[in-house]
Amino acid sequence: xxxxxxxxxxxxxxxxxxxxxxxxxxxxxxxxxxxxxxxxxxxxxxxxxxxxxxxxxxxxxxxxxxxxxxxxxxxxxxxxxxxxxxxxxxxxxxxxxxxxxxxxxxxxxxxxxxxxxxxxxxxxxxxxxxxxxxxxxxxxxxxxxxxxxxxxxxxxxxxxxxxxxxxxxxxxxxxxxxxxxxxxxxxxxxxxxxxxxxxxxxxxxxxxxxxxxxxxxxxxxxxxxxxxxxxxxxxxxxxxxxxxxxxxxxxxxxxxxxxxxxxxxxxxxxxxxxxxxxxxxxxxxxxxxxxxxxxxxxxxxxxxxxxxxxxxxxxxxxxxxxxxxxxxxxxxxxxxxxxxxxxxxxxxxxxxxxxxxxxxxxxxxxxxxxxxxxxxxxxxxxxxxxxxxxxxxxxxxxxxxxxxxxxxxxxxxxxxxxxxxxxxxxx
Length: 427
Prior knowledge:
The structure is a single chain. The protein is 36% helix and 18% strand. It has 427 residues and is of the alpha/beta class. It starts with a strand and ends with a helix.
């Protein structure tokens, strides 16, 4: 049976970054405890809550091992029933979940342990000595901002079983950080990383954004060099997203000048920054395994790989998404509405989709191509009963993809324009 990933959404921040297009908010800390209580209630009662919300016939309910009756998908195995289930990744993201009191994080992890019973202790954390055995979760990630890190707090994270920390650094330049509305500064990064290392956190990930206001080729190169000095096990490089969902994005789209919109690098510059990261990280021994992600050998994000490989995961909290293998669904984004609904025994499912064979095949292609290993057309053709070779001929002629037998992958020089490739593929 497959192994399940669990994602917990914590939609709270200290401030709203100018580039942020996530459904997060700045709220009083008094709202943290009721939210955590609602998340724990959702975790413990998820089967009944999902059934009442009309999300059924999937293995996450433990009713049929993940195969819906008459399901059109040939390769979907979904999530196995709870009694046979192994949860091997937990990811607590946001927002800024490191704002929560360590006791809140402990409560969330305890709820997972009590609901998804496992027999062995995971690596990287001692687990809490209680009547409930710790989960067999060998990767337990917490997203954190550097300024929220303290020695006592990090020790509590380790005791709770957290063994991986993902830092939203975005830049090592104070000028860029200030323009983006970030709370931390370069000095906070250098203060926080040793605290994690001394506490025994051996798996650290850094995020950087290519395209922040005032970013130059020189400042970007400096951020990459400083990143390599601190030597995280994992690195994510994201291009600045320009859309209506963020304040900065709106300014750029409408020609405004707020939020330092006039200082945002060009798209060509962003593509060059990405290529600089490819070269720099590759030379430093990082394996480029997904469009936006690099890792030292053995430190690929096991949880995020589930998303790209279409493996089952359950999401808990406001705005959290789930995938059973045959269905996708998401909770409502508003945290207050979410808490109220769960307190009243309801799950506010905002989106719910039962996948067709066609939509599943499309996911196989564009999610598979995000991984630098590419996709095996032979496997997909067998499992979906279709022929795909001709679909890639125009892309290959245009130099956008390359083939190696039945394997198809994005051409190395086209990773920075992958969205254009995906659009052409789905025509």
